[in-house]
Design brief:
CATH architecture of the largest domain: Orthogonal Bundle
CATH topology of the largest domain: Arc Repressor Mutant, subunit A
Structural class: alpha+beta
Distance between the termini: 61 Å
Largest sheet: 3 strands, mixed
CATH superfamily of the largest domain: Winged helix-like DNA-binding domain superfamily/Winged helix DNA-binding domain
Strand order of the largest sheet: 4-3-5
CATH class of the largest domain: Mainly Alpha
Number of strands: 5
Bound molecules: zinc ion
């Protein structure tokens, strides 16, 4: 019999995996709360944060924006809309090792493209 924490964790994980929009913790909480009103906001935030530390999910830290979460942990890159913030997965491009490390211990490489999502692109083209 799985304990309550394990069940809550699984619900939060499944909710994240069902959302392909790279949601913020706040959005994951909204969705979880719809079906499971007893799971608190702090539990959702804590579970997401812990799963990201454990490498079970990805946390995308964006400068000046709330962190977004991703249930897809296979290597992939992201594209982010500069208008509405929508994010999508893209295949991982071939990225070679850097020429130098600047004294840093390099641990990971994340590729983030920026541009306009299909909706914002349509809007922008209408204005022309
Ligand atoms: Zn957009
Ligand atoms: Zn992703």
């Amino acid at each position: 019999m799985a304990d309550r924490n394990t069940i809550q964790k699984e619900i939060i994980y499944q909710t994240l995996c069902g959302l392909h929009c790279h949601p913020t913790a706040a959005l994951v909480y909204d969705r979880v709360h719809q079906d499971h009103p007893t799971i608190s906001r702090s539990t959702v935030y804590r579970v997401l944060s812990r799963m990201a530390e454990e490498g079970k999910i990805l946390r995308l830290d964006l400068a000046g924006d709330d962190s977004r979460y991703d249930g897809e942990i296979r290597a992939h890159s992201h594209v982010r809309c500069r208008m509405c913030g929508a994010m999508a997965d893209l295949p991982q491009p071939e990225v070679g090792p850097p020429e130098g490390d600047g004294g840093f211990l390099i641990e990971a490489c994340a590729v983030m493209y920026r541009g306009l999502c299909p909706d914002c692109r349509r809007e922008a083209e209408k204005l022309c």
